[in-house]
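pasting for ref
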Amino acid sequence: MSNRQQSRWRESVELQIPFHDIDPLEICWHGHYVRYFEIARAALLQSIDYDYPEMRASGYAWPVIELHIRYAQPLRYRQRIRVEALIAEWENRLKIEYVIRDLESGMRLTRGYTIQVAVDMRTGEMRLLSPDVLAGKLGVK
């Protein structure tokens, strides 16, 4: 994948860690990171006009079948962060990579990825190749 394509297939959001996401030590509970990834993923998919309503309209569901998170540094109450999402693979599956950085310092705090596959909503069958509609949204077909 070229650098030009990667920059087109990248989006980021800025968030602040809220009180309801922390534990008694004012550290963000690990399960909330998935929600932060989801917020960035939705922004990325909206940027290519293939968010969940467009997926549904195209006849495909894209369930997450794998999730990986590497917690390098904890997120803390009121910390401002940037969550970046990047489409890393799309031909056979949709792999989106994530990086969470401290907004002020730019320090990488967390990284991870999700893998989604296309499922034909009529038949319930998983596709071994991503449907042409995704390539069209990415501008490669």
